[in-house]
What we know:
By secondary structure, the chain is of the alpha/beta class. The protein is built from 11 helices and 11 strands. Helix 1 packs across helix 2.
Amino acid sequence: MQKSISQPLDWDDIRYFVELARQGKLSATARVLDVEHSTVARRIGMLEARLGVRLFDRLPKHWALTVEGEELLAQARRVEDEAMAFARAGAGASALRGVVRLSAPPTFASSFLVPHLGALRARWPALTLEIIGEIRQADLYRREADLALRMARPEQPGLAARPLAQMGYGLYAAPGWFERPHEEWEFIGYGEAMKDTPQQAWLAKFAAGRAYSFWTNDAAAMVAACRAGLGVAVLPHFLGRGDPLLALHPDHGHVLSRPLWLAVHPDVRRSPRVTLMADLLADLLQEHAALLA
């Protein structure tokens, strides 16, 4: 005979269960959920007591799912997905007020987006825009952001995405650098987290074994290194063009172009405030398409 549950289950307990199964450790789960690790342990204990099932084996270095926990995890994840969908639908029902969270590459956000937003403020008077500058891709399914600007087409199934502009790159250096013999050139490269980007691939081929003086994942640091005369770099034109401390190589003024995509989850897309901000971003990038490309 199946055991009945005397108390209704709390969604938060299921959320703790799914996240602990995902992370495997109390400390990591506590950081994600922004609680104390003791709270995680307590909530899991309460869920096990209500279900009458042991969900985890408490091992010295991690918590491992039991066979019963493995069996229940798929259903718990479905509950999580439904809860997330409910939250997104609730966001979509809101009016033209509140917060819109935008994930964007940090240097693009600080050097291009923010300086151009002031002229458009009148179009979103009741909204607050929160920009999350990060290299990694925000998870729109988990509502880490409402909108995301990305340098590659989103691969997650179900996301709505459209290309807004082309971002062009050229070969830049401090004035006078390009007058040196080619064999003496040194280069400023994109660091480990960006080593697979198209701009680094082009630079590696062009450098053809010549020395690198500087590596960085920070585009702002790359520009500063270029200005300081540390070497030659592939920079986006919105950072390099018009800078008196940088020179654009006459024969390599446009070495590649990358599409800039705007992604949104379809459920959040129904929100008037998200739609307004998406349209505002599209208009902004189209207005300055020549500068970007």
